[in-house]
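Handout, section B. The chain below has 471 residues.
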Amino acid sequence: MRLRPRYIRDRLTLWYVGIFAIVLGVYICGACVLQYWQLMNELHRAEIQELETIEGLLYFAPDGRLLLHQDYHSHPQSRRVLDDFLEVLTPGGQVLLRNDRLQGMDLGGAPAPGEGDVGYRSTRMRLANGAPVLAISHLHILDGKPLLIRLAYGTGLIRDHLFEFLVLLLLAVPVALVAAGVAGYRIAGKALNPLEEMARRTEQITARRLSERIPIDNPRDEFGHMARVLNGLLTRLGESFEKLQHFTSDVSHELRTPLAAIRSVGEVGLQEDHSPEKYRDIIGSMLEEVARLTAMIDTLLTIAYADSGEVELHRTFFTLNDLAQEAVAVVGVLAEDKKQTIFLTGESRFHLSADRNFLRMAVINLLDNAVKYSPSASSIRLRISDAEKSGDGSRFAELAIEDDGPGIPEEKAARVFDRFYRVDEGRTRDAGGAGLGLAISKWAVEAHGGVISVKPRLPQGSVFTICLPAA
């Protein structure tokens, strides 16, 4: 089972301590390497200085033996050469001098080709007894005879010193990690305090308090961005709740009217006996209200599916010209009853990739409204045109529907596509509308990436425009 801290503050503290431990480990390793390098360099320089001293102490005895002046230093502590590993050979490999510390062991074996000819040659090796040493060799001329002098210092003292240095650093690691953990915990807590405050304020916001907002102390940091996002979410939720309340109220009102009519007609029909023809009229009236109620419920279901994103668009390729002609053929019967004339002008050369049924429903709803609210013997004009955006080369097909009706005031034009909204409550209800046709038209157009709008037409009337992107 994987153990994971529950709170972000604890996880941040552990991450901080872990990263700090890694950095501290890298630092300790680097410090030890640097310390070792410095000690080895100091040892190398000390060997060079002592080898130069030894060169001045060597001499040949009358019998040809190579000896070392041991009375050169007046102070016993200055005679360090006696504690070094010293070996003097001829270029051919004959041993001329070996100090007692070597105990008969050789210091590197036979001379290598060119060993000590130029400068000081440094070599790390182990003696026969396993002791690690740092040896340097140098070619020296004494009384006209070449001598290869080898001098070595043991590196065990350096290792002991380096081990002590490492232990000293490691002893400080637990204290440093504990201090880092405490500091990291406090820093993480201080950094997360705004988040806890936002959570506390958000918990206090209910459906009745959606107007409240989370304060933003610093809008430029991450918490400020989160607060702006939450405030935006609260704004959208508030708008959705408000729309839902209006929608529920409007639906209740719309359902109450046909139900009340059905009940009223039924109660009146039961109060006294009627002829079969009268009962047929009563039943017919009730069926008309039921048909109106069924149509409204079907429309509400379509809108609900559209809002939930469950409506699947079956796209085909067609032109706006064909779509407009189909809509005119459907609504033309209603226009003939009012002796109205529908004119279709213009042409689009662009094809659309869209759901033909939904777009036809949108155009039919607009045409139906134009016929419904335009006076008898008036004209309704449909204009089709193409448009292109010069910036990105996007192409659009436009359909404008002009009527001679009473028009829509500019202050109400922004809400005319809202559900159940009526410019004139009494007039629209008498005409049989539920205030949902334009809402469905707006959804159908926007679902295809288009735009629908309305503007007044002078001297009277309105112009509804649909703009759809070309395939």
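Note. The domain at 8-160 is CATH 3.30.450 (Beta-Lactamase). Compare this with the example in section A.
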